[in-house]
Amino acid sequence: MGKTLAEKILSDRSGTEVCAGDIVIAPLDLVFVQDSTGPLTLRLLKESNLNAICNPEKSILFIDHSVPSPAKELSNDHAFLRSFAGETGVVLSDTGEGVCHQVVAESFAAPGNVIVGADSHTVTAGALGAFATGMGSTDVAVALALGKTWFRVPETVRIVVHGRLAKGVYAKDLILHLIGQIGADGATYEALEFGGETVGEMTMPERLTIANMAVEAGAKVGLFPSDGVTKGYLESRGRGEQYVALQPDADATYERTIEIDAAWLEPTVAKPHTVDNIALAKELKGVPIAQVFIGTCTNGRLDDLRIAAGILQGRIRHPGTRLVVAPASKEILLAAIAEGYITTLVEAGATIVPPGCAACLGVHQGVLGDGEACLSTANRNFKGRMGNPDAFVYLASPATAAATAIRGEITDPREVL
Amino acid sequence: MLRGKAFKFGDGISTDHIVPGRLLHLRSNLPELAKHVLEDADPTFARRVSSGDFVVAGKNFGLGSSREHAPIVIKMSGVSAVLAQSVARIFFRNAINIGLPVLICDTSGINDGDELEVDLEAGKVKNLTNGGEVSFSRMPEIMLRILNEGGLVPYIEKYGSFDVSPGADKNRRQPL
């Protein structure tokens, strides 16, 4: 019987033939935590008898969620992570290196890997054909100690995308549209698997944006096939030898299949306070926006900054709208400087903050005031998400964000292209 | 047998509602963080909840971030179990891993303030206020074993590894 991508990867890595519904123990190719979940994980390890790290070279501690630290308590958490790395030899990715999921994509994840991270957006690495999923601190503590974990092999929802995205419409619009269609629990406990001619043509940054948001539909993983695009990306990262081709079998069994004609999509926005509360950007014209935030593991990549800079070139942000930009990694920041995007954005009135999660989770670097609305390129808009339960978060593409920064109200980017 | 009062919440209560990011600096000070449990869903919950009470919710409870501090502070508040129509995957695993029972059942007949009795063995929730009774889905064997040991860390300390019998767990849509 044919296999989905999830069934193939878990069969291969566990050494048993498994299909949806089976419970499987799989060895892990990468295990990581970040500074908001890591301290709890490491305390569990220190206080239990599970205190040895199975594979230090495949274990990473990321300090990315609140960098540089805005509070002494967080500084102490960071110090704890650093000293643990020193004691155990696990990999440390410290302040300024970037958001864990971006660094994992750039330097670690490969097709066929099984990856767990103590962060829900670990699904991002599905773009490279890795079975990558988020877990809590305890699961990850045990994963660090044993080098393996257990999964229930998920049923798969196949998403087939045809047609070309129109000008001004991006991967972010596609995934927001899909989540709006199936709902915030539309794929709970399931795998999303993307395919179709449009997916084959998508760049790696586009795939990363889509895979990143699989968890916003409740999915365990968001998997892309591994193909020529994957190979090219890995080669560009000096990791060409890690490429393996990975496609689902033609006779794989799917829970259901959803077809999307990308040509009909328009710039899309998730309204407060749920990611599936979808509208078109043009329907929200006139909604005032106090802050635009461009960045995160969803849309803080070089192409995103290029798109934003292209729209903001020679223009200036609306005086009533702050513009905060956080490149997702150090490499992206350096490339954006070299390409001139940072200059363009700063000239347009942007505040550049360091590579990291920045304003996304409401700790610092762009906390909203009472009644304020932010249009963000991130992946979550729950009540209180950006540090204030009396504020409002809209989610959209970098192009919609840039257009909105110019006008000071939600703007369909096609109006300014 | 668990007994307590129902605190009723709606659909889509995220881990941001339970422990918001603005309190990130308290994550290594759990007793202080627990004073804010579910603050953005009901600011009065933390001071009204008593030992043994239940969080009763609608669909997709605990969606969002993987922060395990969310089930931890719910447990620290004295809540004996979470009852919901459905729960998000990571929250479900986290709750079981720290020894907080999560029971998936029809919560539509439970009102805020109802007195409930939960029989974990029999899989039944009795509503002592209105006489209603609902069953909850049995969780997979591996999770029951983890829960019975008080969580994943004590489980692994005792057995050394996952004790997963080969074979299938074909219950559809189990929250793993």
In short:
Chain A has helices at residues 5-14, 38-47, 72-88, 100-107, 137-146, 171-182, 197-201, 204-212, 228-236, 296-299, 302-312, 330-338, 341-347, 398-407; strands at 23-27, 30-34, 59-62, 91-93, 114-117, 131-134, 148-152, 156-162, 191-195, 221-223, 256-261, 268-270, 278-280, 291-295, 322-326, 350-352, 373-376, 392-395. Chain A is of the alpha/beta class and 417 residues long.
Give an account of the 3D structure.
- The complex is a heterodimer of chains A (417) and B (176).
- By secondary structure, chain A is α/β, with parallel strands linked by helices.
- Chain A is 31% helix and 19% strand.
- In chain A, the strands form five sheets. In chain A, strands 4-3-2-5-6 form a five-stranded parallel beta sheet. Chain A has a five-stranded parallel beta sheet with strand order 16-15-14-17-18. Chain A has a four-stranded parallel beta sheet with strand order 10-9-8-11.
- Chain A starts with a helix and ends in a 10-residue tail after the last helix.
- The mean pLDDT of chain A is 97.
- With 176 residues, chain B is α/β, with parallel strands linked by helices.
- Chain B has a single domain, classed as Aconitase, domain 4.
- Helices cover 26% and strands 17% of the residues of chain B.
